[in-house]
């Protein structure tokens, strides 16, 4: 637990408890030792790095609420204070824009669209270990970023659909996505191949895709990317448990636009189709087991990507949530 003179544990009515541990952990400033500036906050993070690391390992996610984080630059300083190495957003599907430093917009898809549960960049070989989100402007309504413990979902799915999970572990998954040349802001997966691979050179794109374990087929619409076979279940060595580490539900229910049919966006590694009823029930289980704390301006949410899946609910604008990815 972070030291009492810098951080204090808070509670939210939306929190849940799993195995006796609050999820997510919520930290606020101690009124007796106020953190008045962003520099104070950054120094407090650095001073308490070990205890914060212990907290993120036990809880899987930490919400920092009530701290002096007001701007994208403040958020960038907050992320820097943790000392994690930045992960470039290469191979991800969401349209994003760089704001400042290592800070990007979160998925810029339209507000009426939900973004289904996923581990960040689970469909590529190199993915972040930590994610930060920052609420610069809270929505009028909706717009939560629900989170759910991955090992808990694995256990639920294993109990309810043992044959499906056995096949999933044996045959793993393949993800298929068609990318246009430029970004399509109307689509939740509208990132074009130019920005996905940070180049306009097809040869360079192929090289960068190969480093991610991805193949590219050039088609009239742009590029068809094929990722996998890639595991859908991983083993979290630090916590000694299996996790539901995939974007199966997100791809099957959300990778939909003029170029992509979501029911064909993800398949078993042997090429066979996923059973629609099981995938849709997995979505129900994710929703039932998740925690969705409404955003407040200034909130910073730190997620361990090895432990937690996240999503986004539709919302009434305005809403501005920024993100940063870490190795």
UniProtKB/TrEMBL annotation:
Pfam families: TauD. Gene3D superfamilies: Clavaminate synthase-like. InterPro entries: AlphaKG_dependent_hydroxylases, TauD-like_sf, TauD/TfdA-like. One of its GO terms (molecular function) is oxidoreductase activity. Keywords: Oxidoreductase. The keyword Oxidoreductase applies. The keyword Iron does not apply. Residues 36-322 form the TauD/TfdA-like domain. This is Clavaminate synthase-like protein.
């Amino acid at each position: 637990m972070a030291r009492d003179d810098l951080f204090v544990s808070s509670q939210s009515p939306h929190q849940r408890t799993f195995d006796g541990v609050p999820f997510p952990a919520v930290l606020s400033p101690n009124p007796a030792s106020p953190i008045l500036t962003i520099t104070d906050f950054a120094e407090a993070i650095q001073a308490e790095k070990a205890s914060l690391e212990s907290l993120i390992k036990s809880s899987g996610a930490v919400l920092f609420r009530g701290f002096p984080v007001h701007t994208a630059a403040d958020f960038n300083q907050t992320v820097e204070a943790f000392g994690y190495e930045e992960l470039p957003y290469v191979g991800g599907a969401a349209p994003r824009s760089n704001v400042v430093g290592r800070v990007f917009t979160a998925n810029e898809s339209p507000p009426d669209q939900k973004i289904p549960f996923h581990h960040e960049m689970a469909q590529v070989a190199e993915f972040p270990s930590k994610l930060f989100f920052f609420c610069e402007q809270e929505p009028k309504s909706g717009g939560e970023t629900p989170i759910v413990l991955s090992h808990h979902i694995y256990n639920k799915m294993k109990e309810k659909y043992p044959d499906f999970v056995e096949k999933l572990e044996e045959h793993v998954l393949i993800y298929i996505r068609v990318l246009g040349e430029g970004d399509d802001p109307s689509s939740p997966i509208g990132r074009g191949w130019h920005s996905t691979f940070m180049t306009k050179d097809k040869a360079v794109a192929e090289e960068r895709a190969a480093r991610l374990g991805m193949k590219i087929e050039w088609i009239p619409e742009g590029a068809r990317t094929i990722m996998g076979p890639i595991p859908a279940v991983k083993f979290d060595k630090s916590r000694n448990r299996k996790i539901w580490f995939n974007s199966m539900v997100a791809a099957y229910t959300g990778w939909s636009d003029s170029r992509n049919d979501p029911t064909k966006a993800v398949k078993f590694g042997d090429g066979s189709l996923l059973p629609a009823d099981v995938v849709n029930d997995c979505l129900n289980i994710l929703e039932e087991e998740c925690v969705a704390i409404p955003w407040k301006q200034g909130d910073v949410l730190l997620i361990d990507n090895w432990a937690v899946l996240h999503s986004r609910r539709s919302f009434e604008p305005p809403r501005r949530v920024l993100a940063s990815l870490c190795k």
